[in-house]
Amino acid sequence: MSGERGVGQAEPGVAASGQAPAAPTLRNLMPANVRIGAAVDGRLYAADARYRDTLTSDFNAVTPENALKWPILQPEPGRYDWTASDELIELARANGQAVYGHTLVWHSSVPSWVSESWSRERLRSVLREHVQTTVTRYRGKIWAWDVVNEVLAEDGKLRDSIWLRGLGPTYIADAFRWAHEADPDARLFINDYGVEGRSRKADGLFKLVRELRAQGVPVHGVGFQAHLRAGTAPNDATGNLRRFAALGVSVAITELDVRIALPVSTEKLLDQALLYQHMLRACLAVPTCESFTVWGFTDASSWITSHYPGYGAACLYDSDMKPKPARDALLHELRTRVTPTPS
């Protein structure tokens, strides 16, 4: 992707009047109909002023990285702990940021006290209670939810999970209906990884969304995680987003990061920047793209190093909170497309 144009071009530094203009921010340049967000560490958001200031300057939306996951919300049966999620959501709202809820149903985030040995009726009852209690608490405060997350295997078939084994495939439609009952105004998404471009898994997701919509299930949008590797672009990302939009749903880039094989070099940072820009361009090319979210904005708190040995530096800002070429690339893409709007 190194032949693509636009990265590293200087932003104007001095206005005609001789006064230096305010530095451009991502949230000010983003089209009014597309939220720009970041996954956030709630503890850093509350305690670290530099983290908070950078986050609120560049992003008008946040996704709690962990605070809304079921094991954290309900560590014991019958006992909810809303402390972390309440604090994060109220802080975001105070800073004029919309909140995207992540995630209601995910096979990797099930409390230890939930047992697969339970009857189908008990499993279904517990799942319904979790979905409806959580969505009801934040009704009117969370604009969208990842209702089901990563329900597909790599071959595009439904993932083998506690929910598929215990409840059958209808759990997916049930979860959407339960969430819609709890907050009819919230946007409800199905979210997955490895589906950003045309692939066997993306084909499986397309079929699933089409079937759910045909059944009247309130699937409003499809989230494309986009955990990518520098220098490797998804196959026809724009065309892929467009075919999903043609089903009548919104689309969103929900968890974008671009990891780099260590050590970092200037060339690798430029390849990373081009891929960030490529994904933003794909989003902006689809009228129903509702949001563009990076999975963490600073390398200081990125999940990449703990999950991908030998890789890192995946975010828009480095560990010292300094902007990288990737952020410049997003700014350039936005400046060539839109007129700045107020925060």
UniProtKB/TrEMBL annotation:
Domain GH10, residue spans: 20-333
Domain of life: Bacteria
E.C. number: 3.2.1.8
Catalysed transformations (reactions): Endohydrolysis of (1->4)-beta-D-xylosidic linkages in xylans
Alphabetized Pfam families for the sequence: Glyco_hydro_10 (PF00331)
Keywords on record: Carbohydrate metabolism, Glycosidase, Hydrolase, Polysaccharide degradation, Signal, Xylan degradation
InterPro entries according to UniProt: GH, GH10, GH10_dom
Family from the record: Belongs to the glycosyl hydrolase 10 (cellulase F) family.
PANTHER family given in the database record: BETA-XYLANASE, GLYCOSYL HYDROLASE
Name used for this protein in its record: Beta-xylanase
